[in-house]
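Side project, low priority. Logging it here so it doesn't get lost.
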Amino acid sequence: MLRPAPLTTLATLTTLALIALLAAGCKEAEPIVAPLSAQDLAIKSASAGSAATNQVVESGNAYIAAQITSNGTINAFAEAPTTRAAKVAGGTFLVTIEDVLGPDGKPILPNTTGQFHLTVDGGTVTSWPTAATFNGLHTVAVAFDVTSAPVTYTDPTSGLKSVIDSGTLTWTLASNYTQTAAQNWTLTQDTLSQIPVATPLTVSVTPTGKPAAVHTVSGSRKATTVIQRQKTASVNTLSWRRTVFGDAQNPVAADGSLYSDWLISASGHQVRWNRHADYTFTWDFTLVRSTRVNASDAVYLTYDALAPIGPFTPAQIATRWGVSRNDAAW
């Protein structure tokens, strides 16, 4: 026959249970982190694919600018040149992205590594009769070395890594170069980059600690860059003004500016990046410092067949999706 437990024992057990319950209730609550939606995840991942593509275009254009302004060196923005190159040499060149340097001697694309082969076609003519201006029209094609040194972009905010696996990228380059003295010159580059939908770039995007997802990139990106070197008794600067726009239809009919257009597809979804930007970067050799002034920078995003959302500034994109979109070469 079972005997009832003494009241003291019951009271003790009840007290212990109550203490355990209170202790559990007093634990610091775990933070509730809302998971990103499928749309947010696609936008975040697509940002790395589009950035990698733009980095190739920018490093290629910088390499060509160096051929024009630096007499064949790869530092397009150094205090040199004292002479100018006769023209952009035609042919195929191996470009190492880390070796394309800015005025401070550091890579202009610090978040990107790798190599690609750059084929430049076309010619350059001098103005007549003074030969003071060079005008060039070139077709530029890129072939990627995906085995020894693939082009790899790592987002400095999110840690997303994107590697260009295959595909081709071409753009047209119209240039105008005028030099009035050894270190007083202006170079204007008009570029239109195009990737057909039928032959897109293939980019592998890998989040930290997760498997890679294969993206395809197609579309177009149009940009104008004006690089100006000035050296006088009181001024010793190099500046470049970049305007990014495109052939795609503007998401906002009230604004007459066109927006660049990259379409990134992955995992059955599509994200379209539309951007218009106008900013100026100036390096002062005397003060050894740089400044950047944004006249405008706006991005619209389209997910699948939904209406475009935006405009977003690079800072707003970084806050909302945790990715860096303030790269000078994007």
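Brief comment: Confidence is low (pLDDT under 50) at residues 1-34.
Revisit when time allows.
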